[in-house]
Amino acid sequence: MILYNVTISVNAIIADEWLDWMKKTHIAEVMTTGLFSSYEIYKVLLQKESELTFSVQYFTTSMGKLQQYQAKHAQELQAKHSSKFGDKVLAFRTVLESVK
Description:
The chain is α+β, with helices and mostly antiparallel strands. It has helices at 15-32, 63-85, and strands at 2-11, 38-43, 51-60, 89-97. The chain has one domain: Alpha-Beta Plaits (2-Layer Sandwich). 41% of the residues lie in helices and 35% in strands.
């Protein structure tokens, strides 16, 4: 199993709007690609009040599917996110593999 993790720091002023948009729009668009089998979203606990940090985790069965997502869909979907929220969010991405 491959985990594509997106960690996002969100200005607290827009956090509710951002989370609602992620749940209703962005994650749905990512999942519609058919390249991920499931997702999870977590809020980091014990953090500053001015910014909230979230981890959005997308699960896929192969690096090939992740690479296909990155080649065909990621740029457009990330651009929509940046266009909507600008500098009020900061994201970084990591790729992990299950080793159990």
